């Protein structure tokens, strides 16, 4: 559907946790540069009571109010839903995606896409067979700030030849206060600082070290060699360090930590080149706010970007535009890239000794 010259998508929201609350809050923001119209059509929860509570808290002024379902299956079968947003824990993504695909629904599924590459391939094979759009919700890749850095580094060669990227994402997730069934401590739910926050450090390594895919969903990208080590607590990695090495010598030094008292300073990422550096700042590696470009022998230049809300709407706009164009995967986050990232995460977990029951 189109309205005011922009595509319109009707969303079915699966799960009513924190990430879903952030996503819907961004969808209803008034934005002057919005590329699409977003309608929150239905909310699917594990119970009607939770779903109604979610609307009362996060969508109190929605008109018309979204339909509330006490099951996810009802979201998938609703003919008025164009795209399903999946905000459940990692361990449920495979089932949620396969169920939605079986009903012919387009999907935006939170990162990490699944628990491992085998599960990811199963989902993407099903999507291809059914002919539906599917994208991993790696929202940071869609920020205008990220697009600007990619242009400066890889197209304009503003810092010369890139040699190294260093990125850290550490935050205190208060693991000591979590029960054994928490998604952050239960391995069967995908508990892993790597999958939860380390994927952002890995993503920044890719952003800085590799040119963007250029919109070609069939384009193949080099799979770097990886060296990794993790610190485990009851089998769960609370800290992971990764070194990526490319054939020409480029390196990414990437880390994550979810332990007590840990917090990465605002300058969380540094991209180093033969003729300068870029330092990226933000509250966390997932939500960059600005960056500083420094050429050798020249003054620093700071780039700042307006970001109302959190920034989930950029990936949502991209989904609407891709579907309106008849495409089944994203040029920014294509299926091959989701699989490659999952393979890198699998190898990191293997070296770090992290094993999920689903492996």
TrEMBL record:
Domain Gfo/Idh/MocA-like oxidoreductase N-terminal: 10-136
Residues annotated as domain GFO/IDH/MocA-like oxidoreductase: 155-279
Cross-referenced InterPro entries: Gfo/Idh/MocA-like_OxRdtase_N (IPR000683), Gfo/Idh/MocA_domain (IPR050984), GFO_IDH_MocA-like_dom (IPR055170), NAD(P)-bd_dom_sf (IPR036291)
MF (Gene Ontology): D-xylose 1-dehydrogenase (NADP+) activity; nucleotide binding
One Pfam family of this chain: GFO_IDH_MocA_C3
Substrates-to-products reaction catalysed: D-xylose + NADP(+) = D-xylono-1,5-lactone + NADPH + H(+)
Enzyme superclass (EC): oxidoreductase
Alphabetically ordered keywords of this record: Oxidoreductase
Annotated EC: 1.1.1.179
Superkingdom of the organism of origin: Eukaryota
Family: Belongs to the Gfo/Idh/MocA family.
Protein name (Swiss-Prot/TrEMBL): D-xylose 1-dehydrogenase (NADP(+), D-xylono-1,5-lactone-forming)
Organism annotation: Periconia macrospinosa
